[in-house]
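lol ok so funny story. i was supposed to be doing the assay writeup but got distracted and ended up predicting the structure for this chain instead. priorities right. anyway since i did it might as well share w the group, maybe its usefull for someone
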Amino acid sequence: MEVEKIRNLSDDELGLEERKTGEQLFRLRFQMKLGQTEGARKLHDLRRDIARIKTVARERELGLHGATHKLESATPAKPARKKAAKPARKKAAKKAVSARKSPGKAAAKRTSSGRTTKRAAARTGKVKKG
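and the output, tada:
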């Protein structure tokens, strides 16, 4: 169901339409569990219709229906840019490069319990061989 059709319904008709759509959704889910139908698309559409109906009902409750048209005519906001994610990636890349260059402490591998393995400790000189 389209949003304009939903907006043209009265409050009573809106409640009736919500109940009818909810009942259809229930019946379709029941049929799908029994394996009688494969109406995944219909299920999706019914859920969307219920959401649209509830949205219009809530707009009416809050008195926002007229305000939504005013917001659309306003100048659009600029999209937010994501700056925080990029520096973190650069720092991680620098650490990885520096770990590959220096075979010192960075070469020591740790187990899941946090202890250094014998082979890695031997490479770094922390444990004597033999």
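The chain has a mean pLDDT of 75. Helices lie at 3-7, 11-34, 40-62, 65-73, 85-101, 118-124.
back to the writeup now i swear
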